[in-house]
Write a structure and sequence with these properties.
Length: about 210
Amino acid sequence: MIPLAPYANQTDFGYSMQTTMLGNLAEHGWSQHNLFLSADLVLALAAECMAIQSIGGLKLAGVRHGKLHEVTTNIRGDQIDWLKTGQSLACDQYLEVMEALRLVLNQNLYLGLEEYESHFSFYAPGTSYIKHIDRFRDNDSRTISAVIYLNEDWLPEQGGALRLHLDGKCVEDISPLACRLVLFLSAEMAHEVLPATRNRLSIAGWFKRRT
Ligand code: OGA
Ligand code: MN
């Protein structure tokens, strides 16, 4: 087999990380992993997102109301570009890691996840995404949400946290620091993206089951 990419990474997550991930997802509905991807792969993904941004390749994200797709920047201010297999070595390697993760989730949590879809998200300073859940009203295929952050040296005072609303009363704020993965149950975990003082880059993705 030809090595896929020059970026150091692994599709074997290790016993302790898997145990933490599966336990937290099952017990709390979310899980966080700080060094999920290697720094060189994350740098390459960040550079690719900025290259797409610089040629005007990102599009304002929309919000779905039934069959209608509306751009509503008061709800979400991010600009996105869907990842496609074969678009770059870095994206292919990222998708390979997420495919390995899909298998681990299926083998242990019996979720019947069949597909993964993901997009780059670019939040310019001051933009945000109000409190929401990731499952659509007319389609319940999105089961596990997965967000990878691409921002080197992020400081908490720069804002931009992913805020999880854990049970209606408690919140958990997670800074969008490079290499960090956050997983949560798409249908249950209300969450929002707080505004930041610098560009905020991520890849947001969804493991989907057949409906
Ligand atoms: C989303 C989302 C979170 C983030 O795209 O639905 O909630 O931290 N993203 O980028
Ligand atoms: Mn979301």
